[in-house]
Fold this sequence. Notes:
The protein is built from 10 helices and 14 strands. With 291 residues, it is α/β, with parallel strands linked by helices. It has 2 domains: 183 residues, Rossmann fold (3-Layer(aba) Sandwich), CATH 3.40.50.1000; 86 residues, Putative mannosyl-3-phosphoglycerate phosphatase, domain 2 (Threonyl-tRNA Synthetase, Chain A, domain 2, 2-Layer Sandwich). The chain has a 10-stranded mixed sheet, with helices on both faces. Strands 8-9-11-10 form a 4-stranded antiparallel sheet, with helices on one face. The protein is globular, with a radius of gyration of 19 Å. The two termini are 20 Å apart. 44% of the residues are buried.
Amino acid sequence: MTLTTHNPTCNSKKEISKLVIFTDLDGTLLDKKTYKWDKALPAIKLCKENNIPIVIVSSKTRAEIECIHKDIALSDPFVSENGGGIFFPLHTHTVPPPEADPDNGFKKLSFGLPYDILVKGLREIREESKINLIGFSDMDVETISRLTGLDTIKAKLAAKREYDEPFIIKESSFDINKLHKSAQKRGMTIIEGGRFFHLQGQNSKGKAVKRLIQWYRKLKENIFSVGLGDSPNDFSMLSQVDCPVLIRSQRTFPALNKQLPNLKITDETGPSGWNSAIIDILDSLEKKGSL
């Protein structure tokens, strides 16, 4: 399966050993409805065989990502809650940044605002804007389960927020600019994900990925970064990598093609698209004699 490429400038001459993959989860590595990644297993296996890091960069909580990390048997750092925190496993041979703090089997870098401040901020924004905003903090586990399609056990993990308050807007017509301005007054930002809007601090996936690229360059020198995502909250991440890949979804983003002239768009959605994209990139490198 080939990729739809607007400008094929992804540098295929880089050695596979220099590759680092940054990936979103829902709608990208994970199926948006079933949350399964089995259709991406061939590419995941190739990455492991070639010691290519797979760095999860998600709006999910640390608790959620830890489970997925373990299930896929990854040992690389991961980014939680839209860049709110970077977590470095301690059981690997790599050395985390010296400023990272110990945190229950990990070293952690925090970039986001504490969750209680975000919850307070969402309530103030709701009162100020007169728009009906319902955050995770307003929902019980059953409601989170229904909205996400997660079972109640996983929904409890999704509720363990640290740096990000997902919310829905219970109105058919609203002024999103009013919400952005209200958030900005409080030093916060609102971004749109695949299922929810998110209230957070000045952190972003892009800032976290930029920090990780700096860290990887100290380990590998000239790395070649690949980023995969499917929704607007991934765009800041895609802007930081050498080879940005947009996983096809029901939405289109024409402006993104102009912002990222080397953007690749997959033919397939979810983990099938992820699998095809990674295999195509590896095949391109192999044809150049890098394997």
